[in-house]
Amino acid sequence: MKAIENGREWVDAYVKGKGDTLAEVARGLRQLMKKTVPGVRESVNPWKIPTFDSNGPMCMFMIGKNHVTFGFLRGTSLPDPAGLLEGTGKNLRHMKLRKPEDLREPALKKLIHEAARLNKKEPMEGMKVKSAKGRKT
Asked: Residue-wise over 84-119: b if at least 16 C-beta within 10 A, else e?
């Protein structure tokens, strides 16, 4: 599968087609990411999931019926003292955003900063961490 070109335009259309409250949450999340991580890029992975990239894929989101799932691709490696993250996967952890006010949670911004810091320290290439020697691990 190939990633979708013009990711930002695709994500704009994806968000526009959802209910008012969840579309507002998704728009707010996109703004928060742009403010929190300078140079963050939006893309769409081959499975048609909107993704935020900073030194490789970092976070993703999906709009469901009752919430926006905001996932951290390396969530198990992030400190989460506020206990915001859910999930049982090997790497991915997520949180459910139900209303725009959820985006004001201070611990959310800290998680985003930590995810960006981790990707800067150990860049991701696809779903694999790129080692210092250039080999995927």
From this structure: bbeeeeeebbbbebeeeebbeeeebebbbebbbebb
